[in-house]
Amino acid sequence: MQKRWNIPEADAARVSALQQALKIHPVLCQILVQRGIESFDQAKEYFRPRLESLHSPWLMKDMDKAVNRILHAVSRQEKILVFGDYDVDGTTAVASMYRFLKKFHAPLDFYIPHRYREGYGVSRAGIDFAKANGFTLIISLDCGIKSADLIRYAAELGIDFIVCDHHLPDETVPDAVAILNPKQKDCPYPFKELCGCGVGFKLMCALAERLQLPADAAYEYLDLLATAIAADIVPMNGENRVLAFHGLIKANKNPNYGIKALASLSGLVKELHITNLVFMIAPRVNAAGRMDDARKAVQMFIAEAGAEALHYAEQLHSDNTDRKEADKSITEEALASIRSHDDWIHRKSTLVFQPHWHKGVVGIVASRLIEHFYRPTIVLTRSGNYAAGSARSVPGFNLYEAIHACREHLLGYGGHFAAAGMTLELEQVDAFREKFESVVSASIDPSLLIPEINIDAEITLKDIRQPFYDILCQMEPYGPENLRPVFLARRLQNTGYSKIVKEEHIRFSLKQENVILTGIGFGMAGKFSLLEQSPVDVVFTIDENEWNDTKSLQLRVLDFRLSE
Residue ranges per domain, the chain? Predict the structure, then answer.
């Protein structure tokens, strides 16, 4: 698939000024300036994130109300129910809050709604559970901001709500005792991009301060918070970067038993990085809710012994194996379905449906299909008497608006710019497919149907040395708004030692002037013939290869094309 290469400009004067201050490679200064870091002090804050720089939790609207209501419940020995979503953000938030409250309050339980029986967020079944079991206060985490009717229902049953959420509020917010959400228009909290677990963390910090607990009373859950930040794809800047940085330190020095067990089952023997949380820990936690019941993810995180955590981690690991098998087989079936319809192949959108596909992986499959056919994609399966599924977009296209324009074919839908879900009558699937295609065709900019690679800087192979790489490592943790730097090197020659490995990947051996570097390009075997016509321009990230106890720098090739 041909890709667009986007190379931004950086202000030369600002880059030069920062280089004078930091005395590091000018290319690194260029990347920092592009990320809004222009002074020595900003660079110091970026490279050495400090917990002391976190904002006061009391700046968040309703924080005093939330703390007062919880302490009132503690003084009267009320039963508190910690309620959260079934994904990584929700389960880590619930586990952290549950363990924190347990330090000083015994009448406590947690509740995770079942993905298929109850759906996302605050559920009527959860409120009925609270009523039946004598709970008078619910703390919702990573959900609740859009649950005005259900929170009113809880109030009628004599149950108060404290909402800790980070999703965008509607015009009308629930009538709860307190709503902690920095995205509220009238919330003065300076950092708006906390995840749900991050909002819960702020509440724990305020409670710790009021109760005069040790400073690290809330900080001991930073490894769970770093996992939530990594999994929820929130911006890796501001407070999120500080929290993820220190959460990784905690995850490596003294991890939660659940993280330790999952890391072991994943085969990880080295240091945990943010990529391990994203690709090893998070999928196993999410798999619990996708394939079965996410309650066991919380049980794993609140386990007080390694053996107990491992017991639950093994169940999550097994769920993830099932998830991968379902994901692989459904993706293969979906691709075959698209290729069997000649008129679908050249469309501007994809919509596929099979009644037997597992509901828990249709969103993942939609993302997989975009890797093959780069366009807005919907994957539907049967759910009871209806069709239901998930949609994923390509960057820059408003998926929610496109689905909204097809609403006459739908029973219900929800989501945001990049992802959505919907339910419809089975007999409406074909009509929905045609309407969605007509809406996308009429509204999408053709350039959005070509994948884009954002390149941070152009360098030469002789720039790629250990001190340069060491500073790149200090720019971690990486994530949105602080992505791993992507480089372009022009006019590289194939040494003749490049080869195809395992039928689909390329092991590169490339030369520029007198410098030779190796690299790996996954899934690029189809472009191997270009190397035989070199020189080539290559887009890559830099990583470290370890072989027989010897480390060397290598290129992780993202794309390449013939030099002009």
Answer: 4-48+455-562, 57-318, 341-449
